[in-house]
Amino acid sequence: MKKFSAVMATSLVACAATLVAVPAAHAGDGGSRSRTETLLEGGKVYALYEHMSARFHPKDVTLKIHAPDDTKVLASLRLDGTETCPDTGDCYEDTFRSGPVTLPAMGAYVIDVVAREGQPNEVVQRSTGFLNYGLNPRLTLSSNHPRISYDHSSLEISGSLVAEDPNTHEVKPFAGVGMYYRARESRGEGWVWTDATGRFTSDAYFNERSTDTTYEYMFDQQHESLKLPFHQQALNLKVDAPSGTVTAPYGSDIPVRGKLTRIADDGTEKPLAAEVNIGTDATVQSGENGTFSTRYTVKQGGQVSIRPTAWNWFTAPTPHTFTLAAPPRTSALSNVEAEVSKYRKVTFTGKLGVTRGSYPKGATTKVSIDHRPEGGTWSSTGTFDAAYGASFTASSPKKADAGGHWRLRLVNADVNGSSSKLGRTYTRVWNDGVTPEGVRKGATVTAKGGLMRKSGSTWRPYGGQKIRVWFKAATSGSAWKELGSTKTLGDGTFSRKFTARQDGTWQMRYTDTDASHYADHGREDYVDVR
């Protein structure tokens, strides 16, 4: 008796085996299924049977061979050696060979197990294994690239299977047969089937955590393996700046520039997009062209290392290092001025420098525009980068109020600029509109409304001010244009007549302010001209 092969055990997955229901007069096995596979010995083909049932005896078994797509039985085989199994024993997991098999043509066939055939307690087990009818199979393997790498994280493994036709003894492609494969290192496994030319392909996928991987393909007693070594490509790091010893003010940002490349499988140097570490707490991502550019904030002296984040696809290059001298607290702002526009936009101008010493070329620092309302606390409204030795102009994204406090602050240098109180008086265009809203072309319409300004918590009429009347036609692509202007009366009201010429939107705007008042605009009012 022969031990059953591991391939045969696995082959059951591909057999879609099921216990076939039989008429009520027949007793089903109800237990474990038997297993079958192909055995080649002495230039002949046999079926090998493993007994897995306690419900019937091996001597009761007949193997029925048929094509995968046809239930017509092409061969019925009895088992040899069943006399060694006692009538009172179950011979569980013992294996038995059939007699020699003769079939019409070389190919893959399905083996059904029938026990006590034709008797009331007959048991039928379908698709218990394959009978691969061919002699001296020869399996060859190859891949579309000889190793696993960053350039080849997916590979196509292909092969061919030929065998000798048992009937004609011609060696030809073994078509339509399945074989099991596995890769122990990646815990991958599966089945492939040969095509009409005896060839097959399977895809293999890898990642940076992969290792040398061996694929084993098994066809009956034929085993072949293909080793795919894991190749780490060489990684090159070139840093243009900084280098040597750098002296920079405390809290300044010094430029860091460089490039990351790799030696590809074809031997050429190619750029790499990857993460680069700067010191212990800063990173930058190189672009598709391999270059990276960022800034490093100077907080203390010492050696700083620049190196790519560990990535197992690549060998680690030698880190680039530079030395920071103990940073002096010399950053300073000068010539700072602040203003608020009529549209509530706060803008600062000034210059960033040092009180003594020098700074590296291209050094910058982050500057915050801070705001504090009356009775409140300071908060940042936004930041910008200022260059040492250069003038700057920067505006806050936050609109000004009637009289809050504003300042500049060097975020990383712990330097606060002087505070400025900025603000204007609020104004409001109110009760505005154009009447009538539905008119004929050429008719007269009146643009009117009122203007107020805020005094403390009270709104008061604001007379003697210029109000501009704007219009935008309803036609596509039209732009706003000014039609005319008027002045507010002592009670703050205003009005002006116009001739209605086309559909469109009207708006009254107060923009001719003095330095102490904010501008305002009214609502958009659509007028239909028929």
UniProtKB/TrEMBL annotation:
Record's signal peptide: 1-27
Keywords from the named record: Signal
UniProt name for this protein: Ig-like domain repeat protein
